[in-house]
Amino acid sequence: MKITQLFLSSLILFFIATIQPNEAQAFLGGVTKGALGPLSKKGMVLAEDEIIKLARMIKGPGDVTKVKKIIGEKKLSSEAIEDTYARIAIQRGNLRREEAETMFKNLSGVEGFSSTVSKILGVGSGMNRGHLNELRIASAAADRGFKVEGIGIKYSDGIKKSPTDLDILISKNGKKFPIEAKDYDDINLASLSNTMRPDMDSLVAYRKMAFSPNAVHPVFTVTHQPSDPSVLKLMQSEASKRGIELVYGSPEEQLIQLEQLFKIAN
């Protein structure tokens, strides 16, 4: 029995030693205390011990809502709330410290930044992944000189029964780029029909509602092209007939393509 326990302990230590620092933090359930210093440079922010305590409260569905309520009762400034959510994400291993610092610098004060960061605090990886992708695209856009006007902007498209949301809105020199962003490993006919077509229609509706529709250039981004060539061709056709640009790749790769679209738009 003791030999088995010793073997398992050695295996765990080997596993931790071979994974990346951020992955090790998530495996161990937290980060070193020094990595949780404030991101905000002004006003009152929560102490590191409070951040750790709040992060440890998130263990299952509904816990993020409870944590947000506790934070709301502290009457913090908007920037301090952003700081709190981002540092909880760091403590939970959902966001690397360096990436959080860049996002905070680029996106603090942007409409929807705070609420989107709070959405990556949960236990399930699916929603966390999608919202983290939105934050990365928005931050990459800011790095390349675009103005980030909002993340997760609520609006009524006149199509869906309830208000929908625009994942990201960026602009430069009077040109606006509303973005629907998807982070899927693959896309099949079902996801194209049930999710992507309706979201493409919402993008078209957003452009029509704009004060100057000709200055609005809708963009649909996906991290990976469909593996099925027929699905890829159909998705390209659906986007083309709606006047929507399709962009593929990592957030950084997407922004390189968006810069080209901006040049064409001008």
What does this structure look like?
- It is a single chain.
- With 266 residues, the protein is of the alpha/beta class.
- The chain has two domains: 19-123, no CATH class; 145-266, Trna Endonuclease, Chain: A, domain 1 (3-Layer(aba) Sandwich), CATH 3.40.1350.10.
- The chain is built from eleven helices and five strands, in the order H-H-H-H-H-H-H-H-E-E-E-H-E-H-E-H.
- Strands 1-2-3-4-5 form a five-stranded mixed beta sheet, sandwiched between helices.
- Helix 10 links the parallel strand 4 (219-222) and strand 5 (245-248).
CATH architecture of the largest domain: 3-Layer(aba) Sandwich
- With helices defined by DSSP (H or I, 4 residues minimum), what is the helix count? 11
- What is the terminal-to-terminal distance? 72 Å
Note poorly predicted spans: 6-29
Main β-sheet description: 5 strands, mixed
* Share of residues in helices: 40-55%
What is the overall shape?
globular
- The mean pLDDT is 87
Structural class: alpha/beta
List strands and helices in order, with pairings.
Blueprint: H1 2-18, H2 21-28, H3 48-56, H4 63-72, H5 78-91, H6 97-107, H7 113-118, H8 125-143, E1 147-155, E2 164-172, E3 175-182, H9 189-209, E4 219-222, H10 229-241, E5 245-248, H11 251-265
Parallel strand pairs: 3-4, 4-5
Antiparallel strand pairs: 1-2, 2-3
Write out key terms for the chains shown.
single chain; 266 residues; alpha/beta; Trna Endonuclease, Chain: A, domain 1; 2 domains; five-stranded mixed beta sheet; 11 helices; 5 strands
